[in-house]
Amino acid sequence: MARKVKDDRVVYRSHNEFGPLKSFGILPKIGDFGLAQQIIIDSRRNIHPIQPDHYRAPEVVVGIGWSYSTDIWNLGVLFLYRDPTLADLNLGDSTPSLQGEEKKLFLEFVGKMLRWVPEDRLTATDLLGDPWLLRDAPSKR
User: Fold this and answer.
1) Residues with Cβ < 8 Å from 3, sequence gap 6 or more?
2) For tag attachment on the chain, is the N or C end more exposed, with fewer CB atoms within 10 Å?
3) SS3 for 9?
4) What is the SS3 assignment for 111?
């Protein structure tokens, strides 16, 4: 058993009284998202409903098929609202704590995710280079 003794006292000691770790062969469940689905790699567009009602991307609501861009829609909704109800959506009124250039950059950032046409939404990789996310990042030299 690993330990360090200093001045007649144990400073560190490792216990393994619980035995070896067990693998139960189970998969984790995503909490509070009862409609989460696994995307089949071979499929480009899925048609079964996903997402809680308030988070649903337009293509899921209409039932025309969805893909990875629905996650970008969800990210935009989460950034914009703590209570993500899309009734009376007005981006300008949703950001009272932001002012000036910061508010402008934020609204442009969220607007890139909340596009009705899925193909018009930026990808997660593209969003990483957005000026709103990079505004406080140290500049590269």
Assistant:
1) 10, 11, 12, 13, 14
2) C
3) strand
4) helix
Instruction: Write the single-letter amino acid at 87.
Output: A
33-82: per-residue pLDDT in tens? 555 556 565 556 677 777 777 778 888 888 888 888 888 888 888 777 75
The token pair at 137 is 């990042």
Q: Which CATH architecture has domain 44-133?
A: Orthogonal Bundle (1.10)
Entry pTM: 0.51
Per the structure block, which two tokens stand in for 16?
A: 């393994």
> Which pLDDT belongs to residue 62?
83
- For residue 13 the two structure tokens come to 């000691």
Whole-number CA gyration radius for the chain: 23
Question: Which tokens hold the place of 83?
Answer: 């209570």
